[in-house]
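Weekly sync, protein design subgroup
Attendees: M.S., D.O., the rotation student, P.L. (late)

Item 1: inverse folding check
M.S. brought a backbone from last month's batch and wanted to see whether the design step gives back something sensible before we order anything. D.O. pointed out we never logged the input encoding, so this time it goes straight into the notes. C-alpha cells as presented (222 positions):
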C-alpha cells in the first residue's frame, strides 16, 4: 500500500484540523462551534469506517450514512449563522424530509447499506453547493465581512469543493456504468489527491481562522 492510500484509509489527513479543533474548542466563539462539531463528526465517521473495514472489509455503511449526516449538520450550521431565514424554514424542513426519504428508498432499492448510495449523495452535494454559495454571498455582501477568507467562507468553500467531488464520484463510481477497474482507480485517485492535499488543508485553515475568545490559543488572524 502506498503512503497516500494509507493516509486516505486511516483518515490521517484529518489530524491537523482535529488537533486544532480540540485545542481551541473551549475558547471558540459559540456561533462557530458547530464547525468544530462537523470536524469532530468527520473524525468519528472515519473511525467507524476503519472499524468496519477491519471487521467486514467494507466501510460503505458508515460512508453512506455520513453523507446524510454531514448534509444535515451543514444545514444546522447555516441556520445557527442566521443564513436560513424564517421564510425558507418550511422549504428547508421539506428538503430534509425528502432527502432522508430518498436515502431510505435508495437503500431499500439497492438492498443493503454495504452498497454505495449514489443518487442521494449527489442530491445532498448539489444542495450543499447551492446553500454554500448563498452563505458566501451573504457573508460578503450582507455581513460586510472585512476578510474574504474568513472562517465561514473557508468552510463553505471546502463544502463546495468536497461536494463537487462527491457528485463526480457518484457519477463515475455508479455500478450502473461498466467502467474498467483501471479507469475507476484513476478517477478515485484524483479525489484522493484533492482530499489529502486540498480539502484537508482547507479544513485545517478553517479551524485556525475561527474567532477565539482568548488570543493565547492557536489562531490565524484575519
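Designed sequence read out in the meeting:
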Amino acid at each position: 500500500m502506498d503512503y497516500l492510500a494509507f493516509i486516505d484509509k486511516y483518515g490521517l489527513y484529518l489530524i491537523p484540523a482535529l488537533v486544532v479543533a480540540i485545542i481551541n474548542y473551549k475558547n471558540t466563539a459559540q456561533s462557530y462551534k458547530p464547525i468544530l462539531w462537523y470536524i469532530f463528526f468527520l473524525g468519528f465517521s472515519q473511525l467507524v469506517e476503519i472499524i468496519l473495514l477491519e471487521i467486514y472489509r467494507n466501510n460503505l455503511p458508515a460512508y453512506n450514512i455520513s453523507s446524510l449526516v454531514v448534509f444535515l449538520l451543514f444545514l444546522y450550521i447555516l441556520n445557527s449563522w442566521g443564513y436560513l431565514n424564517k421564510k425558507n424554514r418550511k422549504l428547508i424542513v421539506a428538503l430534509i424530509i425528502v432527502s432522508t426519504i430518498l436515502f431510505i428508498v435508495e437503500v431499500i432499492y439497492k438492498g443493503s447499506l454495504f452498497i454505495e448510495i449514489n443518487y442521494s449523495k449527489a442530491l445532498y452535494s448539489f444542495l450543499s453547493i447551492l446553500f454554500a454559495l448563498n452563505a458566501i454571498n451573504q457573508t460578503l455582501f450582507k455581513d460586510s465581512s472585512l476578510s474574504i477568507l474568513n472562517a465561514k467562507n473557508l468552510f463553505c468553500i471546502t463544502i463546495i469543493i468536497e461536494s463537487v467531488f462527491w457528485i463526480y464520484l457518484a457519477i463515475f463510481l455508479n455500478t450502473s456504468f461498466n467502467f474498467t477497474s483501471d479507469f475507476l482507480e484513476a478517477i478515485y485517485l484524483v479525489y484522493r489527491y484533492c482530499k489529502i492535499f486540498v480539502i484537508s488543508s482547507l479544513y485545517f485553515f478553517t479551524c485556525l481562522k475561527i474567532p477565539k475568545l482568548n488570543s493565547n490559543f492557536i489562531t490565524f488572524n484575519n
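Discussion: The chain has one domain: 3-209. The chain has a mean pLDDT of 89.
Action: P.L. to compare against the previous round before Friday.
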